[in-house]
Amino acid sequence: MRVLLKGGRVVDPSQNLDGTYDVLIEGNRVVKVEKKIDRVEATKVIDVSGLIVSPGFIDLHTHLREPGQEWKEDIETGSQAAVAGGFTSVCCMANTDPVNDNPSVTKYIVDRGKEVGLCDVFPIGAITKGLKGEELAEIGLMVKAGIVAISDDGESPRDSRVLRNAMDYARSLGIPVFTHSEDKTLSAGGHMNEGPLSTRLGIPGMPPEAEDIGTMRDILIAKLTGAHIHVCHVSSKGALKIIEEAKGDGVRVTCEITPHHFTLTEDAVEGFNTNAKMCPPLRTKDHVEACRIALKKGVADSIATDHAPHSEDEKLVEFCRAPFGIIGLQTALPLSLNLVREGYLTLSQMIEKLSTNPSRIIGKRDIGSLKPGSRANVTVFDPEEEFVLTKEEIKSKSCNTPFLNKRLRGRVKITIYNGKIVFKDK
Ligand SMILES: NC(=O)N[C@@H](CC(=O)O)C(=O)O
Ligand SMILES: [Zn+2]
Ligand SMILES: [Zn+2]
Predict the structure, then answer these.
(1) Is residue 399 part of a domain?
(2) 279 CA to centre of ligand 1 in angstroms
(3) In this protein, which residues make up the domain named Dihydroorotase catalytic (predicted)?
(4) pLDDT score of 426
């Protein structure tokens, strides 16, 4: 089967491409990208004129909840949400039940991801057993079983020595350490950003400094060990400043920002909206602006969703009893396009953050690009089409998002994974 995508605007930062091109796919590989490829070369021609053609998006931060919390999400529904959002690869966090801290859980996730077959499911292994921060997980064996990084996401090892040992291992194994950088002793008991709003609402706060301190410590340990640290869901001005400085000093640090942190302020919490509760929390305008500028300047390498499904029942409780987290796979593209419309990013830079850079961060060379020979993972989208994010639209098992029933602009039309159409908008 030879599929020809005809007449789209191909934007591929990995080869500095932005213009009208045809893309020919054979089997699971891209064969060529040229100004004009004859229809006779293909067995199937798809007219994509007026649409953007991009390398498939790669989410560095997804919670798929399987094994163990399948009422929130499972690998199949999470994969469906991913491809509906234009993601052809997701890296899934280890805070499942049981925790992905040993090769048998890793193997289960890898096998189940392949069985579903809609997108790459790349597991992230835990740093410590049970995410307890005490004993190191079976990192070497998990690497053999297919993890692409280690992280105790949700938690952050309190013991710096433990983190140091993990970073030593990660460095020798050639994988990055994804940190949820937070001084949990400072943010303890908090449920939203700390400030005048948290005081008025009577909700205990989490100061941005908890994130700043965590980021500083984690980066210093990365510097000490020479490990590659990838700081997850950065939300504070201070943390971004620390990351920028560390990059200048040559520390191997990359980071991600979530669409919600560059879009929303803590005001979304008003009315005790538990669908605006996540960790780190939504912050004030100056922090949101700092996130946007960091993406623009390249201090922030990637946009990741931190897709964190929780059921309606779990979120339908008093604010302080609700779990942290919101879904994000199907809102990432329209929210990222807002940064393009507002002049923070070019389309090419946006795709760099959603595909090119993530592929480099996890060291996967055959994705994140439409160069001939790359895997045929392609996202085709209409940057202008508007839609309302109704429950029917949402492929995830959970609907915990502050964007529910909101109008969004920018829609995925076709997602191709390994040369096969895995999502097509009606
Ligand atoms: N982001 C969240 O608010 N929640 C995540 C954990 C995490 O990413 O820290 C979850 O697993 O629900
Ligand atoms: Zn986290
Ligand atoms: Zn997370």
Answers:
(1) no
(2) 6
(3) 52-237
(4) 85
**Residue 368 belongs to a domain:** no
Does residue 285 share a domain with residue 419?
A: no
pLDDT at residue 371, as a whole number: 98
Q: Where are the beta strands (DSSP E) in 13-107?
A: 17-26, 29-34, 44-47, 52-55, 57-62, 87-92
Token representation of residue 298: 């390249």
275 & 415 share domain: no
Q: What span, in angstroms and rounded, lies between the C-alpha atoms of 141 and 103?
A: 6
Q: How large is the average pLDDT for residues 5-32?
A: 98
The first and second tokens of residue 8, run together, are 């789209």
Name the binding residues for Zn(2+): 61, 63, 153, 180, 233, 306
Choose, from 12, 101, 306, 366, the residue flagged as catalytic: 306
Q: Which residues are annotated as a binding site for substrate?
A: 63-65, 95, 310, 324-325
> Which ligand 1 atom is at minimum distance from the Cα of 277?
3
User: For the segment 268-279, what is each residue's pLDDT rounded down to a tens digit?
Assistant: 999 999 999 999
d(CA 320, CA 345): 36
**pLDDT per position as a tens digit, 89-123:** 999 999 999 999 999 999 999 999 999 999 999 99
Question: Virtual CA dihedral for 414, 419, 422, 425, nearest 10 degrees?
Answer: 20
Is 398 a domain residue?
no
Amino acid letter, residue 27: G
Q: How far is the CA of 369 from the centre of ligand 2 (A)?
A: 28
Q: Pocket around ligand 1: residues whose beta carbon is below 6 Å from it?
A: 63, 95, 153-154, 180, 278-279, 306, 308, 324-325
Q: Are residues 252 and 384 in the same domain?
A: no
- Taking Cα atoms as reference points, which of 8, 30, 10, 103 lies closest to residue 418? 30
Mutational pocket test of ligand 1: of 278, 327, 400, the residue with most ligand atoms within 8 Å of the beta carbon: 278
Domain count of the chain? 2
Mean of pLDDT values over 363-381: 98
The overall average pLDDT reported for the chain is 98
Alpha-carbon Rg for the chain in angstroms = 20
Residues 228 and 257 in one domain: yes
What spacing in Å lies between the alpha carbon of 31 and ligand 3's midpoint?
Answer: 36
pLDDT in tens, 148-166: 999 999 999 999 999 999 9
**CA 43–ligand 3 middle distance (angstroms):** 42
